[in-house]
Amino acid sequence: MHKDGAPQPTWPYWILALYTLTAVLWLAGSERLLLQWAQDAAQVARWKDAQGYVSIFLNALMAGWLLRRLLRAEAVRRADVLRRAALRRQEEERQRLAATVVDNTIEGVIVTDANSRILSVNAAFTRLLGYTEQEMLGQTPRMFKSGRHGQAFYEAMWDSMQRTGHWQGEIWNQRKNGEVFPERMSLSAVHDSANRVTHYVCMFTDISAEKAQQQRLEYLARKDPLTGLDNRAWFGNRLEKALETATAKSSQLAVLLININRLRDFNDSYGHAVGDQVLCHVAARVQAVLRPGDLIGRMAGDEIAVAALDLGSEIDAAQLAQRLIAAAAQPWHTPDGMEVITRVSVGMCVFPQHAATAEGLLQGAHSAVHVAKQHSGADAWCFFQEDMTQAARQRLELEARLRQALAEGHLRLYYQPQIEIATGRLMGAEALLRWLDPVEGLISPARFIPVAESSGVIGPVGEWVIREACAQGQRWRALDLPDITVAVNVSLHQFMLTDIVGSTQAALADAGFPAAQLELEITESALAQQPEEALQVLRKLSALGLRLAIDDFGTGYSSLAHLKRFPIDVLKIDQGFIRDIPQSADDMAISAAVIAMGHSMGLAVLAEGVETAEQLAFLRERGCDQFQGYFCSRPLPADAFEALLRQSREGPLVAIPCA
User: Global pTM?
Assistant: First the structure.
């Protein structure tokens, strides 16, 4: 095989020349030999004919051999030409594909000569840098320098290029519009066969978004995204370091936990966007009154923690708490001009008097703010004391015992009679939960109900109460006792956080108790907190056919616009408005107004906590429908109430006094 343009092989010509010479010698020599060997002319003629035939035969063989060699050589040449053409096409295709890939890749690509003069760039490069290709051709990449790197950076880059022929790393460059941005760049040298550098090829990726995301993640690892304060983890980390410094300097440090009161009310009333703005407002105001070096962070939805460093005494912490309360109370105005004033409670825990660790200080401050809210309410502050921790431990212990009591059947229902005022007859009973502990005896609901609500145990406990009330009501019906309504209190947590509709429906079905004889009592405060959600639940409960009552009416500050939409059957006047009748003219006026309002809305009205004949006489005069309280009876166990039911067959249980 030979390269295109090379001289053709000469061997066929040499063979042809040699053959011709041999043929000439043969013809000449054979003539002389014939003349010597044969004298007869006829014989010579025959030999000449044979000689001609031999010559023709030999010529044919030689021609055929030469033709075969020539055809084979031509076939080899043609195959070589086709192969080389295919290789050229493949190479051209590879170059075309490579050019297409380079032009369409999202990475910027630039090629320079050995003197760093730009020879070509791809479309991504022009898009990312903002220059046209014509503006860059013949220039050097120095036109993209950002000014963020010193001479040492570039010297290290080219030192790597000289040693390895390659450099890879991050670099800041500048677009045509002056914007500086980060790149991840790979720079390589191209060498010829003599190992001389002929070109440089650079590829880079714009990592601005990646850097921004990295900064965002780093920010979120340390900061609360809403307020910009330290988050819980980062605040704890900084607090631990502050404790190390305080220990070394033998100085005092206080952690103050700020609880924003009624932040959830802002969310429910005006939406979470407004609630978030209120939180940011409080955070900014609080941060503004801190001293340089003090720490601040957001612990939870409505809690902000402050670490006051280098305190002289606990008085300094108390004064700071007062400043924080005053700062948080600065008004904030909604976009529509309404003024919002927030109130906070502050709990304080001091190092080293109260706790020696970051976790201990935060826990102590949490206990203190809980006490401040319970006993003093808004704008109150309180220091941590050991009895706060003890109280928390007792709550946890009581929670565990309550779960065990539910599992082992130590809970009981007592029933307080509900009397029709017009006739004095027994009309219903309110089922009241009691805990009969085997060791301690009866435990007050005021003691365990708050624990049940805060721990979530109220869910299963509330379901048990409804099931037991329905079952007991059905047992009385089976004894052919007078039909009464059994009323059950429903906790706010049970009402909003459990499937109260499903559990009530199941309890009625399992007991066979008529839905019309079951009454569920929901506190007014529960309805006021989330009126729209409450409305949906009440409608589903009403569809079951049971009665619905608003308990403790007058204490929840619910909107009458919402109230009239609820499918309510009974209003229960809170005992706080009954207790001082007839001494309190205000309570008498409020009670009379509630009775009138309830009747105007087509509702029955029941007064709670009636203890005297004067109170009952007043209610009778104002047209109140029913009452319950010690004037008739204390809450009774099921067997004692059964006896009362039997007694009610004989007539009124209560003699109703005249006003």
Answer: 0.53
